[in-house]
Amino acid sequence: MIIIMVNEINWFPGHMAKTRREIKENLKLVDAVIEIRDSRIVQSSANPEIDKICKDKPRIILLNKCDLSEEKVTKEWINVLSKNNVKALAVNSLNGLGLNSIKGEIDKLLKEKIDRLKQKGVISVIIRAMVVGIPNVGKSSFINKMAKNTAAKIGDKPGVTKSKQWIKTKMGIELMDTPGVLWPKFEEKKVGLNLAFTGAIKDEIMDVEELALSLIERLQKYYPDRLIKRYKLDSLEETALENMDKIAKKRGAILSKGNIDYNRVSIMLLDEFRGGKLGQVSLERPVE
User: Which GO terms describe its biological process (predicted)?
Assistant: First the structure.
């Protein structure tokens, strides 16, 4: 199997460069920016380009999939990210948790503009917001929940949304959708790993066995008890490979002659992590 190191992947094909240009061009059409990140990997799922391009626009940062991240850590991130014209919120786009707070927070950020319009006689102010985020952070799920329809196409594979579109919501907010966009390269291997753990990078270009080993290493550091409980282990060994072997034996991922089926146990581990079966896990903390 060919191993592709995550810090060597170039993530800036033509359509992503085009998206960056479109965001710049369309900023003048919106009042605010809604940036969606994965609450499990808040820093890794942030596109540095967004900070540069949208720095002068009021911004709401939605820490999505908050049901999958550790609540205490998510609150720490909210405190760190909320400042000046930026407000962070924890949300779950699938069940709508936290979405009702968005309108009130945008109104606070745009208070001066809204007050000016009302002084001019505008009774109902419609807010226009651009939705941005890297692939697989739940952008389409967010838009669909806000619109309460299937206006934006949802897919399990990263990068399903291909072009921008406007979506009306019942909150008095019109949303401009944009394709998910990543930055040119990963400066740190850890960022690439975090994106791969959560599925933002396609499994097809990764070595899933190496990826699962790296995930076990991370879980050993932060959540050893979760591994022991989920896979009914008596204890953890020192290395990730030893623990993978123990997990494989517990789950029956065994080939002929007693050899470990590493591909099977790796896929199982990644699927269970992404599905929240290991509990609420935060792979990044503000203090780091």
Answer: translation
Architecture of domain 207-274: Orthogonal Bundle (1.10)
> Does 28 have pLDDT greater than 60?
yes
Q: Sketch the domain layout of the chain as residue ranges.
A: 6-177, 207-274
Q: Is 93 annotated as a binding residue?
A: yes
6-177 maps to which CATH number? 3.40.50.300
> Would you give the distance in Å from CA 52 to the centre of its chain?
19
Distance CA 132, CA 177 (A): 7
- Was 33 annotated as part of a binding site? no
14 pLDDT tier (thresholds 50, 70, 90): low
Please, which residues have CB within 8 angstroms of residue 44's CB and are 6 or more apart in sequence?
38, 190, 191, 194, 195, 283, 284
H or E stretch covering 251: helix 240-251
Is residue 28 part of an annotated ligand binding site? no
Q: Is 67 annotated as a binding residue?
A: yes
Is 153 labelled a binding residue?
Answer: no
Statement: residue 6 has pLDDT above 70? no
Bin 258: left if φ > 0, else alpha if -120 < ψ < 50, else beta.
left
Q: Strand 86-90 to strand 165-168: parallel, antiparallel, or no bridges (unpaired)?
A: unpaired
Q: Is 39 annotated as a binding residue?
A: no
